[in-house]
Write a structure and sequence with these properties.
It is a single chain. The protein is an alpha/beta fold. The protein is built from 12 helices and 12 strands. Helix 3 links the parallel strand 1 and strand 2. Helix 3 runs parallel beside helix 4. The radius of gyration is 21 Å and the shape is globular.
């Protein structure tokens, strides 16, 4: 299933149950007060939303992608087509509330709907329950970790020469092995790294196999600008600092260089990687800050934001 369905639906449901909210998933004939559409905006979803409205139910349309701007990206094709935009706008016509996974998406949605709420992705600290050992930050060689779907691993290539220069080992957690091109000056055509296949059960433990989370992204597209902070948030929640590109949502976690930092240029990436090699106390401080910052984004607390919307709707 889509990761966003797990993040914004399945892991939230148990916390809603404790608040007296009973949920069913994809049971079309189940009686409900509210229908919440996550990653659904096709023709069938629209007809279901219309039927729910006709029966007096409330409809929430949840957006995890910026479907308001057509986007074409290198190696990813066209993740947002004209059809996606048309489908999203049509769902907004029947939605009582639009919830969004990032403030960037919420700002775009607000152009087309009167009731838009930014609900951040959450970190379930009952699942991501480990804590990065302080002693790891004093290892002779720093280990960096990147996690994501294999089709997006190519974004790492912008900083691979720097990892080679500073002797930083790279670990990749993904659905399968990516092929990464080394810098042109390297005598080896491909970049060598350690790989671990992503699994829900082992992901929290795998996060601890690095001292820094790397999240380089191309941010010249409205598609990438709409991403949530979950990619770096899961690492920070367990005390692994993050270094990322200037994705708008990343500023919520990495403001004022606490818990990690944002790098806007290759020069800034170069500077910070050199610095963490020489200053391990910085990593220790970032680790503690990261865990503290993410406490406000636990699934238990984010579930309360859903409760506030449900309460307003059902009044």
């Amino acid at each position: 299933m889509s990761a966003s369905v797990w993040i914004r639906c399945l892991q939230v449901i148990p916390y809603l149950e404790r608040q007296g909210i009973h949920s069913t998933v994809n049971q079309l004939d189940a009686k409900a007060d509210i229908h919440l559409f996550v990653r659904r905006q096709d023709d069938e979803a629209y007809l279901l939303a219309e039927r729910a409205k006709a029966q007096g139910c409330c409809v929430i349309f949840d957006l995890v992608v910026n479907y308001f701007d057509k986007a074409a990206l290198p190696r990813l094709g066209t993740p947002v087509t004209d059809k996606h935009v048309q489908q999203a706008l049509r769902m907004l016509e029947v939605a009582d509330v639009v919830t969004c996974a990032s403030q960037f998406i919420a700002d775009r949605a607000s152009k087309y709907h009167d009731w838009v709420v930014y609900i951040p992705d959450s970190i379930d600290n009952r699942h991501f329950s480990y804590k990065k050992p302080k002693t790891d930050f004093y290892r002779k060689r720093i280990r960096a970790v990147w996690s994501g779907i294999v089709s997006k691993a190519f974004e790492l290539e912008m900083i691979l020469p720097l990892l080679q220069r500073y002797g930083i080992q790279l670990r990749i957690i993904s659905n399968r092995w990516p092929i990464l091109k080394a810098c042109n000056q390297s005598p080896f055509p491909f970049f060598l790294y350690r790989f671990k296949k992503w699994r829900y059960e082992t992901f929290p433990q795998a996060i601890l196999e690095g001292e820094i989370c790397l999240s380089p992204r191309f941010v010249d597209s409205p598609y990438n600008k709409g991403h949530s902070f979950f990619k770096i948030g899961v690492f920070m929640a367990q005390g692994v600092p993050a270094i990322g590109s200037p994705v708008p949502s990343y500023y919520e976690l990495l403001n004022q260089n606490r818990g990690g930092c944002i790098c806007k240029t290759n020069q800034e990436w170069d500077h910070i990687l050199e610095r963490i090699i020489d200053d391990r106390e910085l990593l220790v401080r970032w680790s503690e800050e990261a865990r503290s910052i993410l406490m406000q984004f636990t699934t238990e607390k984010i579930a309360q934001k859903y409760m506030e919307i449900f309460t307003k709707l059902t009044r």
